[in-house]
Amino acid sequence: MNREKLAFGSILVVLAVLVSGCAVLIAGAVGGGAAGAAASAQQGQAEEEEHGAGAYVGAVAADILYVPAKVVFAGVGALTSGLTYLVTVGNTSASSAVWNAAVEGTYVITPRHIEGKDPVHFIGP
User: Fold this and answer.
1) What pLDDT shows up at residue 8?
2) Percent of the chain having pLDDT more than 70?
3) In a domain, 8, yes or no
4) What is the 3-state secondary structure (H, E, C) of 92-124?
């Protein structure tokens, strides 16, 4: 089963690199997906939870677009939070609201997200 997951992931990565040509973003997304899958696997071992190969492939595929989008969103939000602080002359509650909405939330899609067991929060609480 692990070889199938690795094969699916490898094929997906190769196709993504060939289609988009943006190897750095894809490598980061795949790394994030792998980290999420590893975290999910650790949690799964503790709870004896199993995921299908499709959930792992789906997580990596989703992370190819999701991780870069979330990182850009968080970066722009952090800058906006700083500008909010300046424009409001030091109002920390206003800048904190912008910061929390942009920077907090889910950064990596895991198989649990794909299966609907955990919610995805692109925008923080």
Assistant:
1) 58
2) 62
3) yes
4) HHHHHHHHHHHHCCCCCCCHHHHCCCCCCCCCC
End-to-end C-alpha distance for the chain, whole angstroms: 37
Whether residue 79 is contained in a domain is answered as yes
Residue range of the domain that includes 36: 2-114
In this structure, what token pair is assigned to residue 119? 């919610």
The CA distances from residue 48 to 4, 5, 40, 42, 43, in Å, are: 20, 18, 11, 9, 8
Domain count for the chain: 1
Q: Among 56, 67, 77, which Cα is nearest to 107's?
A: 67
The position carrying tokens 């609480």 is 125
Query: Is residue 119 assigned to a domain?
Result: no
Q: What is the pLDDT of residues 73-105, one digit of tens each?
A: 999 999 999 999 999 998 899 989 999 999 999
Examine residue 68 and state whether it is found in any structural domain, yes or no.
yes
Distance CA 101, CA 34 (A): 26
Residue spans of the chain under pLDDT 50: 24-25
Do you know the residue count of the chain?
125
